[in-house]
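For the sake of transparency, this paper describes our internal protein records without simplification. The tokens are whole numbers drawn from a learned vocabulary of local backbone shapes. One such record is reproduced below, unchanged from the form in which we store it.

. . .
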Amino acid sequence: MPDSSRFSYPFATLQQLAQDVLDHAKAKGASACEVDVSEGFGQSVGVRCGEVETIEYNRDKGIGITIYSGQRKGYASTSDFSAKALRDTVEAALNIARFTAEDDCAGLPDKELLATDCPDLDLYHPWDLSVEAAIDSARRCEQAAFDVSPRISNSEGATVSTQEAQFVAANSLGFMGGYPTSRHYIACSVIAGEQDAMQRDDWYTTRRDAAELDGAESVGATAAQRALARLGGRRVKTAEVPVLFEAPLAAGLLGSFVHAASGGALYRKASFLVDHLGKKIFPDFVRVSERPHVPKGLGSSAFDNDGVTTRDREVIDGGILQGYFLNVYTARKLGMQTTGNAGGSHNLIIEPGQHDFAGLLKLMGRGLLVTELLGQGVNYVTGDYSRGAAGYWVENGEIAYPVEEITIAGNLKDMFAGIVAVGRDVLVRGSKQTGSILIDRMTLAGE
């Protein structure tokens, strides 16, 4: 276990608090109990136009307690770690459980599914960053953006943030696990142009280990270049064209797939992927893997929020849906086995293809490159997809001019089936990793 002396409480204290909760729940007659104890702290510095705009510190702690009384469930939480507060919170959860309806799917996981060890996934890398150093980094980031061109006329600011946390999860079947984590980022957002001809764009980098962050100057310069490239945006005529989703947005498409294939949507019949297990929903070449144990991974975890062991698996293989995203409860609702996805997916990775970004543009030939999406126009029951968008018109395999004030529309089922290529320009920013994704045809609504 990495040193966690930077925290307010030793890791062993969190373990003891969890055990105290379990013991009191048992003494009060709970048939089962699960508890999560956590604390975290961080620092975030914001600079705008060279001046310090914000310095924020956060330090949080909490205990969440779920009590089962037979098939009845109650939940309560507290940020007070005193013995009396823990007892009161256990009793509050128990009282809630007594008044809730019975649910035959409620309860802890089967004991054999619980994690019995917790391998070190190298998720904790403290960043000894003073406020002065953070301010300097944010200023260098923003100044690098201004230095790109005099047409960078204003700034929405640069931010440098460092966050650390640790937690212990436990239940009355004997499971107890936890570990410290860290996550840091540098971000910048700037404005190019003047008056009615202004455009904004941003860029950021995030990692568990600050040593692996992109340089502050690189982040600022990228944000500036992206804002400048959007100047002179035009409307385009309504048409059906190929659409290339830039890697950061392609991860959102992967997120839409996860939502549609998640147990909560499936058992409520609120997904277009109901009863699609074992069916082909992507082209043959698409492979989507879940890799929960990637060292330093932003989505890595030895167990899920139910305490169930996480495992490598192929979610999509040969374009065929091999598995859903289920926790204990939703799995029981569907008459299936949990996939260890309580809390979401873990390092979901689309296998990169052979094309780099320039290669994808050439493959598309003529169409729309999307670099920004607006609104939340996704109907997961039908799969209908409609979002405001901005990006670039592509002619002869090269970017021709920026495009704005348009809408792209389609159906996720058709979009997934119509994937032409997945780029190798993978950008790691979260638990979903993919290169840019080229889709054969969508409706572009413009002039």
